[in-house]
Amino acid sequence: MVTHRPANEQEAAAVIAAASGQRTPLGVTGGGTKAAAGRPVTHAATLSSKGLTGITLYEPAELVIAARAGTSLAEVERTLAANGQELSFEPPDLRPLLGTEGEPTVGGLSAANLSGPRRIMAGACRDSLIGVRAINGRGEIVKSGGRVMKNVTGLDLVKLLAGSWGTLAFLTEVTFKVLPQPERRATLVLHGLDDERAIAALSAALGSPFEVSGAAHLPAVDGRNARTLLRTEGFAFSVDYRLKSLQALLKPFGGGEVLDDVAGAALWRDVRDVAPFMRSGDAVWRISTAPSRGAGIAAALSRSLDCRLIYDWGGGLIWVSVPAEGDAGAAAIRAVVTTPGDHATLLRAPAAIRATVVVFHPIAAPLMRLSQDIKQAFDPEGIFEPGRMYDGV
């Protein structure tokens, strides 16, 4: 298979225009770390952003950084860390979970709209993404947003392209707002709670004024007791006060123990990257719901499936591991995740399963027509990742 690796936007636009003229399906890739996600797609050629690298703008005082799409996430994070700053949404590293290699890129991160545990406080990846440059399916270079946080010019294509998985346009540059790193981080761990009690504890903490930046629950498994995690961060004196206040608030749940930044950071990396499911050969689902419904959904799934669970976002994000056989639990999960606004995505499974089940959450007919219209507007010949998210789109 031919792989195109343009060195600039003009070369990328020429490749796309030629592919559009010949109706040549293109696989869109950065570091290739998420190639195993989504529906399997057959491409005639691959368009890579690996030649589009480098930080193009960094203004620490303005809390803004821009980089070409093929720039590694690690390079951006190193640059920010040298100035005491970070991407606020805590980008996950899903390579071990998906069984892929390569280097995650900022373009791939944006296209997949990936966010970690801090999403409950700082928002999703798309909320930090304030500007993009991209090339549509006609080979036209487009720009949306800007390089300052107050920029509101034009249509907000930024939010539309974030999470489109390369099906609408080829990203060439992304711009993020960033935040200072906190002076201290600490984690409060509650032990031995069942799922319902754990989510009640997480909800109490999230509903308090004590600014929790992480709220997760790891149920008991393999002889290890259940752990319920709450993270606070900020100035050291503030973290100390909030920890004591949270312990008092959660005394009915056991009060818990405090982990320092180092031990706590390891736990949160495990939650962020879904580490408990890394080495299993099971299929993995990602369910997004309201925290108040999390325990009920999990209980219903446990009655109908042989599954393991991890909760993040206060119970609003449920990772589900099921045997990678048959439909990988698709029918049972779709029967439970039915509330409007909830989503269930099959993130990891063998290609044969992903080819036969609906991978991304099914959408109603009017929304599907709207999605098809948007695809037609951006990519009239349907050359970008055809069918990766939904059949026929």
TrEMBL record:
Residues 1-181 form the FAD-binding PCMH-type domain. Keywords: FAD, Flavoprotein. PROSITE patterns: FAD_PCMH (PS51387). InterPro entries: FAD-bd_PCMH, FAD-bd_PCMH-like_sf, FAD-bd_PCMH_sub2, FAD-linked_Oxase-like_C, Oxid_FAD_bind_N. Coiled coil: none annotated. GO terms for molecular function: catalytic activity; FAD binding. The keyword Flavoprotein applies. This is Glycolate oxidase FAD binding subunit. It comes from Chelatococcus asaccharovorans.
